[in-house]
TrEMBL record:
Name of the protein described by the UniProt record: LuxR C-terminal-related transcriptional regulator
PROSITE patterns per UniProt: HTH_LUXR_2 (PS50043)
UniProt KW keywords: Transcription, Transcription regulation
Taxonomic lineage from the root: Bacteria, Pseudomonadati, Myxococcota, Polyangia, Polyangiales
Originating species: Polyangium sorediatum
Entry keyword annotation includes Membrane: no
UniProt cross-references to InterPro entries, sorted A to Z: GAF-like_dom_sf, Sig_transdc_resp-reg_C-effctor, Tscrpt_reg_LuxR_C, WH-like_DNA-bd_sf
Residue span, HTH luxR-type domain: 278-341
Keyword Transcription found: yes
Length: 341
């Protein structure tokens, strides 16, 4: 039992943890078949089967069988409580059940079962089920063993899921920060700061006076936006802009994935100011081309995002701008624009 408990805390990979632990559990509570599953976000009856010591046909179309699974129905009514088949329904009812007969049809002679629903969070639940083919009922001692271990299985699933969620958010944050010039501050669902990139504080101090910063080092203007995000995290917000001599500061906020209690990230980006368009060009270029030409110092992705168009459309606009003005490239466009200002 000590080895099993140690195994449950020995890794943050769900399949690895449950697979190794099940092998040790089978030495404590022998069974002919067993399964360990954890619910998935796709649906209440969609599971990730971390352990499946049962015929493959059992899992084919399991979602359709859920309403007829007396084991699942019983443990769902008493989560975290280990139940044996005799505590789920009578022997006669079990033998008439769809699950009992389905198992026999696929070569699995279900005679006794013991199971527990693992639940510590409304967003997920797990299941640990043991089956025996012979008329050897699970004893009180075996039930007590599984009951004692169930909380360790629950904690293992919770820790693995938490780690997976953190890894997913870290991966997204890395992707978000792949663009040049980004800095970020991450907040939890209640608005408390969780982390910030190394140069975020430096950028804030460059753009805001010390008197504008609160004790947490966040300007009042941005702290208010965090408060709005906490109150209504699902309504998109327009970016906050602050003008400078050669560039503007753009601050936007977006949610990170994770379901209930998801955190959000504040992105800080220094954006070059718009290039002034000479008066003669205003007669040559369309209004859409003028907007793109003004942002020639920006990268295509930022232009597309700002103007709500695709990057391909940005490229097409630049191509037409170069043709109309007889300019070979973006560097020449910048040079000529400032020269004719």
């Amino acid at each position: 039992m000590l080895d099993l408990v140690a195994e449950l805390g020995g890794s943050l990979d769900l399949h690895e943890v449950l697979g190794h632990a099940y092998g040790l559990l089978s030495q404590l509570v022998p069974a002919d078949h067993g399964a360990l599953c954890v619910s998935r976000p796709e649906g209440h009856a969609v599971y990730d089967w971390a352990v499946a010591e049962m015929p493959e046909r059992f899992f084919q179309g399991y979602a359709e069988m859920v309403p007829h699974d007396f084991v699942r129905i019983a443990v769902a009514e008493q989560p975290n409580e280990v139940l044996r088949d005799t505590e789920m329904l009578s022997r006669a009812s079990m033998e008439r059940s769809f699950l009992y007969n389905h198992c026999r049809d696929i070569g699995m002679q279900l005679e006794h079962v013991m199971a527990v629903m693992l639940r510590d969070d409304p967003s997920w639940h797990g299941g640990l089920i043991l089956y025996r083919d012979k008329r050897i009922a699970f004893s009180d001692h075996e039930r007590a063993i599984l009951q004692k271990l169930s909380r360790h299985f629950t904690n293992a699933v919770k820790n693995c899921r938490l780690f997976g969620s953190m890894a997913q958010r870290a991966s997204l944050l890395d992707g978000v920060l792949a663009g040049i010039g980004h800095e970020a501050i991450v907040f939890n669902a209640s608005g408390a700061e969780v982390a910030r990139t190394s140069s975020a504080e430096k950028m804030l101090r460059a753009w805001f006076k010390p008197t504008e910063l609160d004790p947490g080092g966040l300007p009042t203007q941005l702290a208010d936006r965090v408060t709005w995000m906490v109150k209504d995290p699902y309504t998109p917000r327009e970016p906050y802009w602050r003008g400078g001599a050669l560039a503007d500061l753009k601050v936007s906020i977006q949610r990170l994935p994770g379901g209930v209690g998801a955190s959000f990230v504040m992105l800080l980006e220094e954006v070059p100011q718009l290039v002034p368009i000479p008066l003669p060009w205003l007669r040559i270029l369309s209004s859409a081309e003028i907007k793109v030409a003004e942002r020639v110092c920006w990268d295509n992705a930022l232009i597309a995002s700002e103007l709500s168009i695709t990057e391909l459309t940005v490229k097409k606009h630049f191509s037409r701008i170069f043709d109309k003005l007889g300019i070979p490239n973006r560097a020449a466009l910048i040079h000529m624009a400032w020269r004719q200002r």
